[in-house]
Amino acid sequence: MVVVSSREFRANQRKYFALARNNDVVITSRSHGSYRLVPILEDDTVISHDELDAKIRKGIEDYAQGKVFRMNEGESSEDYLNRMIEAE
User: Fold this and answer.
1) Is the whole model's pTM more than 0.85, yes or no?
2) CA 36 – CA 27 distance, rounded (Å)
3) Residues 21 and 40 sit within 8 Å (Cβ to Cβ)
4) What mean pLDDT is predicted for residues 25-38?
């Protein structure tokens, strides 16, 4: 783990961004607390609170209207997922 002050981070951002690819980087500030620098990977999902809330509400609405997929008895999870994808 690498711990740096916010001043050191500001002065050498490129260095710490590169370091964060393989190490934990913690940035400390007396007035703002500590933060961990974490790279966002290709398979990470970034979504705002409002977008997540809207998706949850839509899912609840779909469920209430019976727009759901149920796994058939004996159906593999792969077949179930393929059936859901094909339906869209």
Assistant:
1) no
2) 6
3) no
4) 96
